[in-house]
Design a protein that fits this description.
By secondary structure, the protein is α+β, with helices and mostly antiparallel strands. It has 6 helices and 5 strands.
Length: about 210
């Protein structure tokens, strides 16, 4: 599972027996970039016996209960749980302390789920600039000429570029998990789309 950092937050809340479960550090997204409204794969700050560590965990509704959850229409919280995705999630924790740490994560789950939702909403409502749009969709420090060359685009084919740019925007929004479940790209991206399209069409390709 490819991990792409999306969010950063602070603050910590003390848990039992020498374990401090902190706040959300980031949410990761799988390669396919599908937005899951019932779960999230997150990293959280923690302190174990005074030693700072970071934990990975999946939080939300277990797959075996997702059908029941959707049918009930009661939301995630009645089914809220946490579980490990792989061994790297608890690599900083001695095996003898795993259940202890997992219990602390369970206790912190309602707060962590709220932080995850708030972070998703914050990302979706972010105020965008053209530079920010360009960096996300076409790549940081990439010029229009770089984009045309790297993706073998034809600057004379405005219709083709228009379609390609639309796909690039949609892919960046979903795979980057910049929006919440079912959200659309920001309205300001429409104006940025035209500016980016103009820049790509203006590139002179050397024969």
């Amino acid at each position: 599972m490819a991990r792409k950092p999306l969010f950063f937050v602070g603050n910590q809340v003390r848990a039992e027996r020498g374990i401090t479960i902190g706040s959300l550090v980031r949410e990761w997204t799988p390669d396919e970039g599908e937005i899951d409204d019932l779960s999230a794969y997150i990293q959280v700050e923690a302190t174990l016996d005074g030693r700072p560590i970071r934990l990975g965990t999946v939080i939300g509704v277990p797959e075996s209960q997702q059908g029941e959850c959707r049918a009930a229409g009661s939301g995630v919280r009645p089914y809220l749980s946490v579980w490990w995705a792989d061994a790297s999630d608890w690599q900083d924790v001695p095996r003898a302390r795993l259940e202890e740490v997992k219990d602390a994560l369970r206790s912190a789950a309602p707060r962590l789920w709220t932080e995850t939702l708030n972070a998703r909403e914050g990302a979706a409502s972010e105020v965008w600039t053209f530079e920010g749009y360009w960096n996300v969709v076409l790549g940081d420090c990439r010029s229009a000429k770089d984009v045309v060359r790297e993706f073998a685009l034809d600057p004379s084919d405005r219709c083709g570029l228009d379609e390609w740019l639309g796909f690039a925007e949609a892919e960046s929004w979903v795979i980057g998990r910049l929006g919440g479940p079912g959200s659309r790209v920001p309205g300001t991206w429409g104006d940025f789309h035209e500016r980016a399209l103009d820049a790509l069409c203006a590139v002179e390709v050397q024969s």
